[in-house]
Amino acid sequence: MITKAPITRELMRADIAKMLHMQPEEVQDDDNLPDLGLDSLRLMKLVLGWEEAGLKADFGLFAEHGTLGEWWQAIEAQQAG
Amino acid sequence: MRAMGGTPLTEAQEGLWYFQALDPSNPILNTGQYLDLHGPLDEAALREAVARTIAESEALRLRFRPVAGGAMQVLGEPPELEWADLSDHADPEAEALCRMAEDSARPLDLAAEPVAAFSLYRLGPDRHLLYERIHHLALDGYGMVLVTNRIGDHYSALVNGTSVPVPFPPLSRADEADAAYRASPKRAEDAAWWRAAMQGMPEVTGPAPGRAVSGATFLRESRWLPSDLLAVLAEWSDAQRLNWTDVLTALTGAYLSRWTGGEVVAGLPFMVRMGRPIARVPCMAMNVLPQRIRPDEDALLADWIAPLAAEMREARRHGLYRSEQLRRDLGLIGGARRLYGPLINVQPFDRPPGFAGLEVGLHILGAGAVDDLTLTFRGDPISGMLFEVDANPGLYSPEDVAGHAARLPAFLSAALAQGRLAPVPTATADEIASAKALTAAAVHSVPDTTLTALIEAQMEATPEAPALVFGDVTLSYADLDRRSAVLAGRLAELGAGPETIVAVALDRSLELSIALVAILRAGAAYLPLDPDHPPERLARILDRAAPVVLLTSPELAGRFPDFGQTDDIADSPASGKQSAGLTSAVRSAVQNAARPRMPQCLLTSDWPQEGTAPATPPQPGNMAYVIYTSGSTGEPKGVVIEHRAIVNRLLWMRDHYGFTPRDRILQKTPATFDVSVWEFFLPCISGATLVMAPPGAHRDPTLLAGEIRSHGITTAHFVPSMLSAFLAAPASGGIRMARVFCSGEELTAELRDRFHARVSAELHNLYGPTEAAVDVSYWPAAPDDASNPLPIGWPVWNTRLAVLDVRGRPVPPGLPGNLYLGGVQLARGYLGRDDLTAERFVTGPDGQRLYATGDLARLRHDGAVIYLGRSDHQVKIRGLRIELGEIEAAIMGSGLAREAVVLAREEGGDKRLVAYVVPQGRWSEQAVAAHLEARLPAYMVPQAWVVLDALPVTSNGKLDRKSLPAPVFAAAGRAAETAAETLLASLYAEILTLPEPPPAEADFFALGGDSLSAVRLSLRIEEETGRDPGLGAIFEHPVIAALARVIEGGATTGGLSPLLLLAEGDPAQSPLFLVHPAGGLGWGYRRLAHALAPARRVWAIQHPGLDPDQPLPESLSALAADYARRIAGLVPEGPVHLAGWSVGGVIAQELASALADIGLDVGMVAALDSYPADVWRAEPDPDPVSALRALLAIAGHDPEAHTELDTREKVVGFLKAGDTPLGALPEQVLDSVVRVVTDTSGLVRRHHHRPHPGRLTHVRAGLGHGDRHLTAELWRPHGEVEALEVPFLHPRMISPEAVVLIAPMLKAAMDRAEQRALPQAAAE
Fold first, then answer.
1. Do B275 and A39 touch (CB under 8 A)?
2. DSSP secondary structure, B216-268, as one string
3. What is this model's ipTM?
4. Residue pLDDT, tens place only, B700-730
5. Poorest-confidence range of B133-142, B167-176, B425-434, B1315-1324?
6. Domains in chain B, start-ordered, CATH in brackets?
7. Residues 29..68 of A with a Cβ closer than 8 Å to B: which?
8. What count of CB pairs under 8 Å joins A to B?
């Protein structure tokens, strides 16, 4: 169910939307994902899938930064560093 | 670090601060819990763990300093862990819980003492309780979880020697998040989203009626949800790809919607933390999101829960917007208007924390205010879930709370099992079983016989005993036997027999009683007719019922001109029998040929002297009587009651109340009311004596009291309103009887208590429609009965009382439903109207025949039934019951409309009648209104008319009520021009929900504004201009152009000027002056003034002492003389009209003389529930607190209902929370009002009346004055008095509801006064 292709922001958005039974365009960069129903169990499943696909990021920051925009920023920062 | 001067409150804190500031003594915001620690505790580690947690949680050190308009928060000294060893106590646990309860119940001084407290109670070597109490302003529920878990983490780290967990982020993050949101454009977007989401929201209610504002305590019932329910919840949610939290919320909402009319607006606590920088900050951030839940009872669960879950997700997207702000946006201010009802609080994270080496239990003591009902689910389906019902004890009893706690889990299980809501009753299986048990208990063996047989048996058993008394004539049972037998024989000759009808139109007399017995002995059913009814109605009933004989007297025969005398057919005495011998087809043909059918008329003067009863006894299944009741369509309906039914009713009554031959029963009810049935026949089957009151006596309390005394009456029946009048009559004092029965209207607790204070007798409340043999339920209203409301009680023998919801499902105690009746007493149906019979006599869910009473009822927890009113096409506007169908019929009757629909629309919190018409003919609003005014009470004439080309219909052809447009309360004139006018026009439109800004001449109050919307207007003006115009300015200058001048810097007296123009009107007509009540303000008269304008100008006279610089008057006469001069200055030539409420009426009476003194003519002088000074002289002068409490009455509240408001702060707080302008008065005006109340009360006590010129029109508050007997009579010593009355309490006399009745009275009184003043003109 989780994609194996290299992770992009749009792929993450699609995965999140699928997990929440929403359309990808309904998940905005500044939407607080826990507000949309992304609880810790669902988040864990997503992160496992992304890590399998080769993404490395500090997912601890998700607790205090719950938007896709913030996540992607952190991922980009990590990749740059 | 926080700034030295402190930090402002966050928006999240502001709402709580406002609540606490209203009542600083309310401790409900002390949230508290304790951990039950089992095992060997490392005490040092615990002390250290608590100290470290406190040190890193700034919120626990907050102090709150009040400043203008709110509070600043600063950091104070941290709290310290208290330590108490209770192991020596007999019951250490109880002692610990008691200390916690004491601490939690203590109001905090938030400026001076710590918001938090921690205590450890040692119960024994291996058991400790760790108590935490934190004020909600500092911490929300999740903050409490963070702090508690943190103590556990520190403890475990200390005990295990592991590393210290990452510290909490600083509290400043909460302030930053608050400031960021306040500044972001998102806030305005969210506001707009919420406004749209709440568009058309229903009036918010909870399961219990009443004012939902949290008190100091709450009731709680908690239980663990069964694991199989949790498993089904989790599985079902997963299968439907829904979050179980959403499913739980949705189904709980569905349960609540059963209690709130199909839609509930629930409050959903929202943490506002996850995924945000404040996720781990101990602080107050929680919001409550209003969620409208309107489940589709017939759909599959997923079909309505999935869209609802999407809606809730969308709402959380806008969940930072504070609900307190939304409540203000929507104008839902004031105690009775709410944004949401019960809370549904799903808290998956709330689990006991981990303490290394210890077993821990978590116990929540209090989680903040409980306005209504809070349904909390703590935990998750895997770890288990605790379900708590917290309830406001002002609204719910402990039984109610236990009921909800038991019912909701059963409802959840049943709904998930059924997959739909429709098959799930709200009542539990246990509750349904209890109702069945009550019906089973009412089963009683009754002989299968007839009323005729029972009467005949009694006449044979006690021939010498007195049967009937009328005046000074007494008939024995033998006399009754003989005379009724003779008449029965004659009736049989005329065709009477089983399944035939004999009509009776006789005044109360021995003959009436004999006639009824004779008809039954002939085997026929009797049909009573009221000779006073309009002849058309009588003729229609006779035509429909087709009686074989009409029994009447020579005096009354003239009412039935079409009926032939029996003399015409006396020559052929066999004619009746012949007719009976014909086949029904032939008989029907004969009857049709003879239309209009004429029964034979038998006059009392023609009764035979000799003869014997026929041998045509009725069977138990034959009809015994037919009584006509009025039908909603205007066509009377004949209810057919069979012998079996009435026998059950009479034998129950005889046995249940122990009637004996010594009883003497008063007959005073007209025979056309079914109550008379037991009056007539209960004596005849008990061997008792029937005493017939003289005709008309049932309306004369004094005459009745005389009858009861002189005839030694033991049993009498009263309709409650008549009982009230009877008790008020001096003659009723000290009467003794065995028992009094009430039925026909609601018997109130107040009347019960008044009864027992005055009369020595049992009092019994009976209930039943004509369709079920007189009465089906009973309640002993004994002196020690404290029920309020007083129930209609328990079923009589072989009777079932079923309260079912609209889908025929049983309802639990407390939930209103429709009352259905079952059992042996049900009528056969409506004579000749099988269609109506099928409509009302239905088959119940379990196959039983039931009668749908059309009455609303609810069950008490003990199963007794409480009557709540009618369920028909009725609405209540200002407390008055209105049949919308009746108004629609009247409009159609005018011939001016092709179609008409009348609705009660809610506009700005006020319900108004709006008529939608498709006009025809010479339509005009004036013409149709005039037509209605001639036919309907004034309160039933619509306030607005909307003309449409066609009424909107839905796709399936039904009227689409939602598409009917809101009416426009029109105003004409020049458009707003200046900036201030334009602003005001848009604010008027916003607050009064007008389609477009009104013109510059528009009057706020004429457009439908009231004092509450005026408060909102003043707030909005302040928001927009930064300048508070003062509420009084709106009262003084309600017209846009004038108010604009005030805003632009013009002068205003703040609405306190001694003469305040309340409503503009025709200057050529005599003006009306409304004199202020005790408080000196005349604002409360605004509604009354608008009801009497524009026929004339209406002014308020206000006390000059409202200006603190003005001296107070020496006497009431001096005050009145001052008012007279002011009036003369304004209106040099009379006449003028005067009226006043309460003290205002006392002043008006004196003012009439004062005006006469200076030569000004006075027209009407009206006093609204005012009483002369003599009544008050003995009362002590009011102290400041009672003067303040008088403000409650001035604001329209009953002070006696609010004895808890005993300080200035409480009274002011209550007024501020309520929807009255007094709450919005500036402090110094409030001080002036108190000064004026105190002074004026003293003036009244020292006043001596002089005779008033002309007539005093007195309108009494008819709902009484506590234990005082105050009437217009008290004014008689001072002059001529006209006594009127309206059904309200004193404090409500100028309320919108009362104005509807009082304004027409005053208008008529002014017209009469003007007629009197112009006798010559009238004579011409």
1. no
2. S--EEEEEEPPHHHHHHHHHHHHHTT--HHHHHHHHHHHHHHTTTTT-EEEEE
3. 0.91
4. 788 889 999 999 999 999 988 788 878 877 8
5. B1315-1324
6. 7-175 (3.30.559.10), 176-353+368-434 (3.30.559.30), 457-643 (3.40.50.12780), 874-963 (3.30.300.30), 1056-1176+1244-1319 (3.40.50.1820)
7. 31-37, 39, 62-67
8. 44
